[in-house]
Design goal:
By secondary structure, the protein is an alpha+beta fold. It is 28% helix and 20% strand. A five-stranded antiparallel β-sheet has the order 4-5-8-6-7.
Length: 329
């Protein structure tokens, strides 16, 4: 591991000042950063420990809720307000990692976790995300875990988070603070597509601290009664999604009044499937309706040799999630 300085500032202002220098990195639970430092995939010159800043509360905010960036994934998943109003988020969190990892992992760190593309994690091979301009080893490599949506000629890595898929479905807003200004970034604009610069993964600037995440009240909370996160993976623990779907239905008088569909494991960022939502609205919930929505969700997929199965798998995952959300046995 390369040498680095370590500081644990007492407040957010000092943390932001310390992380403003090029090469500095925040440290929260450490479950992504420390792994990648050991592998020398990330080599910050300064580590700014924010894990103990008082940003871990989960509270009502208007008709929605506010979740502090330092709230642990396990605490969010089991919180009464989350379980009651946003069970989709609780399900997505509990589908990720293990209890031990969730006890350390924070909301801020989960938003910024890095891809599990094996070439990204191997400094011996080219990777545009890790070493810009070096090339993409996955393009001619083994692509079973890679993306079919949102890819570019520079990178086809999937975004690995389960939590973020639920946040996208729920229209969360990420709040940040940097030298003198606060920002509210809609989750759909928080993660960026790889394009020609896969090394840029989000809208944050150097030293910008995530302070909390807001979940809106209505309409997001209207999905609580009929929502579901389904994750398909190779084994039941310590495995990232091959495909996942976060769905919510708001049904009145036998018709779907509003719907949310978001996908994980198949795209380069947590993916909102607006076309699927449009196909659901106004329809009666049924297997046929769900299948039409799933077909509409996968627009212009770009499968490669080893991941073509994800086109069908993503559709089947959406149908299953919609059936479970609606209550089909
Ligand atoms: C064995 C294992 C299995 C896993 N399985 C899954 C899984 O199935 N599904 C899943 O979704 N995830 C999984 N993960 C990933 C895990 O969810 C993330 O590692 C975790 O959420 C990161 O949170 P952290 O607090 O530990 O972040 P850290 O490692 O501390 O930080 C991660 C990044 O976020 C930045 N950061 C942290 N907090 C802030 C902040 N407030 N503001 C600005 N930047 C910040 C850091 O600088 C760093 O770049 C797994 C991880 C492990 C180790
Ligand atoms: S897919 Fe992206 S992360 Fe993986 S090797 Fe290519 S550039 Fe790197």
């Amino acid at each position: 591991m390369k040498p680095f300085t370590y500081v644990r500032p007492a407040d957010a202002k000092a943390a932001i000042a310390a992380a403003g220098a090029t090469g500095a990195s925040f440290l929260a639970g450490g479950t992504t950063l420390v792994d990648l430092m050991r592998l020398e995939v990330m080599s910050p010159s300064a580590v700014v420990d924010v894990g103990r800043l008082p940003l871990n509360t989960i509270e009502r905010r208007g008709d929605g809720i506010r979740i502090g960036a330092m709230a642990r994934n396990s605490d969010v998943a089991t919180h009464g307000l989350v379980a009651e109003r946003y069970p989709l988020l609780a399900q997505a969190l509990l589908a990720g990692a293990s209890q031990q990892v969730r006890n350390m992992a924070t909301v801020g760190g989960n938003l910024l976790q890095r891809t599990r593309c094996p070439y990204f994690r191997d400094p011996a091979v080219p990777c545009n995300k890790r070493a810009p301009g070096s090339g993409c080893s996955a393009l001619d490599g083994y692509t079973r875990s890679h993306a079919i949506l949102g890819t570019s000629g520079s990178c086809i890595a999937t975004h690995p988070s389960d939590m973020c898929v639920a946040l996208v479905a729920l229209d969360a807003v990420v709040h940040t603070r940097s030298g003198g200004r606060d920002r509210a970034i809609p989750i759909g604009e928080f993660h960026t597509l790889p394009g020609d610069h896969p090394e840029v993964e989000n809208a944050l600037e150097q030293g910008e601290l995530i302070t909390h995440v807001d979940l809106p009240g209505l309409p997001a909370s209207a999905f609580a009664a009929h929502s579901r996160y389904v994750k398909v993976r190779d084994r039941a623990a310590f495995a990232f999604a091959l495909a996942s779907a976060a769905v919510g239905l708001d049904v009145a008088d036998g018709r779907i009044r509003a719907a949310r569909v978001a996908l994980g494991g198949v795209a380069t960022k947590p993916w909102r499937a607006l076309e699927a939502e449009q196909a659901l609205v106004g329809q009666a919930p049924s297997r046929a309706t769900f299948e039409r929505a799933a077909a509409a969700a996968i627009v212009d997929p770009r499968p490669r040799r080893d991941n073509a199965f994800k086109v069908g798998l993503a559709k089947n995952t959406i149908v299953r999630a919609l059936e479970l959300a609606w209550g089909t046995p």
